[in-house]
Amino acid sequence: MTDSTDHEQPGVQRSEADWKQLLTPMEFHVLREGGTERPFTGEYWDTETDGVYSCRACGAELFRSETKFGSHCGWPSFYEPLAEDRVRYIEDTSLGMKRVEVRCAACDSHLGHVFSGEGYQTPTDLRYCINSVSMRLAPKQG
């Protein structure tokens, strides 16, 4: 993971009015306004289905189920994205603490945050804490 605060032009660009028409109010709040769904309420927080998680706004593939793990935090947790170029990172100090926001690299939608050094036994020692409402799961076929 690299800490990036540059603001490259994302690949999918729409006006906020267009996003409001395409997304439900909750999806818009999380994806476009940087909101957070309540813990233990999202569709995927405890899902164990094999497949690929894509951005709910633009469809870009972000995470694979093989990297999802039970962190018991109430949100889906992954130890790495499908590829580093699928997400981008922004320093977030909005709650009086330093966090790293994770955004979709294709459409610049807010996904969640990534944390390190929490002691999870994962290959990367990272926890991508991602809102269920920001993703859509395509179950593995066959």
CATH homologous superfamily name? Peptide methionine sulfoxide reductase
Radius of gyration: 14 Å
Number of strands: 9
**What is the straight-line distance between the termini?**
32 Å
Write out the strand line-up for the largest beta sheet, numbering strands in chain order: 3-4-8-7-6-5
Number of domains: 1
Structural class: mainly beta
Give the overall shape, derived from the CA principal axes: globular
Residue share in helix = 10-25%
CATH topology-level name: Metal Binding Protein, Guanine Nucleotide Exchange Factor, Chain A
What does this structure look like?
The structure is a single chain. The protein is mostly beta strands and 142 residues long. The protein has a single domain, classed as Peptide methionine sulfoxide reductase (Metal Binding Protein, Guanine Nucleotide Exchange Factor, Chain A, Beta Complex), CATH 2.170.150.20. 11% of the residues lie in helices and 30% in strands. The protein is built from two helices and nine strands; from the N terminus they run ααβββββββββ. The strands form two sheets. A six-stranded antiparallel beta sheet has the order 3-4-8-7-6-5. The protein has a three-stranded antiparallel beta sheet with strand order 2-1-9, with no helix packed on it. The longest helix is centred in the first third of the chain and has 9 residues. The chain is globular and about 40 Å long. It is an enzyme of class 1 (oxidoreductase). One of its GO terms (molecular function) is peptide-methionine (R)-S-oxide reductase activity.
